[in-house]
Design goal:
By secondary structure, the chain is an alpha+beta fold. It has twelve helices and four strands; from the N terminus they run ααααααβααβααβααβ. The protein has helices at 5-12, 33-36, 40-49, 62-74, 90-96, 105-113, 146-149, 155-165, 176-186, 192-202, 218-232, 254-275, and strands at 132-138, 166-172, 207-216, 279-280. The protein has a four-stranded antiparallel β-sheet with strand order 2-1-3-4, with helices on both faces. It is globular, with a radius of gyration of 21 Å. The protein starts with a helix and ends in a 6-residue tail after the last strand.
Length: 286
């Protein structure tokens, strides 16, 4: 049986007590009459007041949110933001806290579908050649040996360390990601991105360059870059500016853009876990 991205995430994100906080009901959580009698509006208000990010409350999802409210009331500390997540977007914090998630897979496919068969009457930025990809630069001092650690560490913690390790997101083709490393060795230019690279090298470690979403048109790659930056937040990156949205994604509300960006980041971290990585040290840069 196939599962969606967030169904897979649900299978992986068991809490310390092995109780899943997902879009599935839990037989161990009993909903008191007081909670079951709340209107949808009242239930949403209660959850929001405790810091939860609430999606649509429907007949099929209501019981999930009722049980989540009970858990927050029984363990109020769970509603407090982990100080290590301060400054991240609500969507990322919600995900890393194990709250119910919206499945944005359909929206991502909708975005990509625009570029499967380019319109002959439309002019695309940098043309229609499908030679681009996206890349993420990670700090190994934070995202240290995640593929190996994933065998024994809680998956939610692995994703959290991945997110904290990302310091730059880009779009490129050919050797574009390495231009940042070359710039760090051959110029005296000083900026946050180059300072981070040099700091990693000064500790005798190497930058992790993760390449994802290959063989795309430039506009699609620019859009994926923008979606991931929107989710992670520019303040958490060394990018100098936000990305640019194209096609239908330009009309999406910010919450949807961040949600799809979260889906892209999650799948990027799976690529790292599955394929592994090699650190690029200063001596590796010609």
């Amino acid at each position: 049986m196939s599962v969606t991205l967030w169904e897979e995430w649900s299978m992986l994100t068991a809490g310390e007590d092995n109780t899943l906080v997902t879009m599935e009901t839990s037989p161990t959580v009993i909903v008191p009459l007081r909670v079951s009698r709340l209107s949808d509006t009242q239930l949403r208000a209660e959850l929001v007041s405790k810091g939860a990010l609430v999606g649509p409350i429907t007949p099929s999802t209501r019981i999930v949110y009722e049980q989540y409210l009970v858990k927050l009331e029984e363990a109020p500390q769970a509603s407090l933001m982990d100080s290590s997540l301060a400054g991240y977007t609500r969507e990322l914090i919600s995900c890393l806290k194990g709250e119910p998630q919206t499945d944005w897979t359909g929206a991502e496919l909708e975005m990509a579908e625009e570029y499967r068969h380019p319109s002959a009457g439309r002019k695309y930025r940098q043309g229609t050649s499908k030679t681009c990809f996206n890349y993420l630069l990670l700090d190994p001092l934070i995202a240290d040996d995640l593929p190996k650690r994933a065998l024994t560490v809680n998956p939610r913690e692995i994703f959290k360390q991945f997110i904290k390790g990302v310091f730059y997101i880009g779009k490129g083709k050919q050797s574009r990601p390495y231009s940042h490393l070359i710039e760090a060795t051959r110029t005296s230019k000083d900026c946050e991105k180059l300072a981070r690279i040099r700091d990693i090298w000064s500790r005798d470690r190497g930058v992790i360059s993760l390449h994802v979403y290959h063989n795309t048109m430039a506009e699609e790659a620019f859009t994926r870059e923008a979606l991931m930056i929107a989710c992670l937040g520019l303040k958490k990156l060394t990018n100098s500016k936000k990305g640019e949205f194209y096609g239908k994604s330009r009309t999406w509300r910010p919450a949807k853009q961040r949600g799809v960006g979260l889906s892209l980041l999650y799948k990027a971290h799976l690529t790292l876990l599955n394929e592994g990585h090699r650190e690029i040290k200063r001596r590796d840069v010609a």
